[in-house]
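Per-residue structure
===
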Amino acid sequence: MQGPTIFTTYNVVRLLGNILVLLLVCFGGALAGTSTYVLVLYENIAEVFGRYVFYGCLYAALACGIFAVVLGLFAFYDFTQENRFTAILTVVSSLCLFTVVLILGIILFSYPRAMQDQVLQAMTSTLPEYGQTNHVTKAWDMMQSFLRCCAIYNLGWHAYKNTVWFRTTNLQLHEKDVLLPVTSPFYLSVPESCCYTLLDGLTGYPTDTYRDQNRCQNWQYGPPLYTDGPHNDALYYRVCEPPLCYAAVTIMRSFPKCC
């Protein structure tokens, strides 16, 4: 007596469908988890990039991730129970998800310069508050330390002269509203987060050890005091713009340190 055939077309299609559903659930879970992780631990970055851009992108990614997980569960039920209602719901939901992702992709592809200009405007408006507002200061320190960059524009260390941090740090103690001369050993041009830190030989992540903090913040022969002169290898030369690509790489690289 011949037993039931296992490798039928229906079983193969159902197996492939379940595999695709599993991949969809994993993708949705990873997307939702990453978005939640960034929202919880990197919320200060919104002060640098702009709240509308930062939270808009993250909440859109979080919604797509949750929707993908729910869609995958419905699809898994459809492949196992053969329910017509769930089949129709799965198809409609898949089309909706595909449409949303396609629209977001078209927007990002069509208006990259507008997005960068908006982010750049937000960064330019928040940098003068460095040293005054705690969350803005932490956001800039976090971004510059992780991304290993300094200021916004190329060779733009002088932008820190317009910050509250610069005016309070270089203020003379005995004379009100008078700054220290640039020749003073206590004169600081940039904050510590602009200083080059050594990398860990095993993990490749930045450490808390500076190459030469004094040379980074106060050097009389070139940057950051002047835009030209000998190269200062204790200072970050890379500019923190465009930030979105660098931020994505930083966030993904930070997972092994926390998990």
User: Anything to note?
Assistant: Confidence is low (pLDDT under 50) at residues 248-259. The first strand starts at residue 197 and ends at 199. Residues 171 and 177 are 7 Å apart (CA to CA). The longest helix spans residues 9-41.
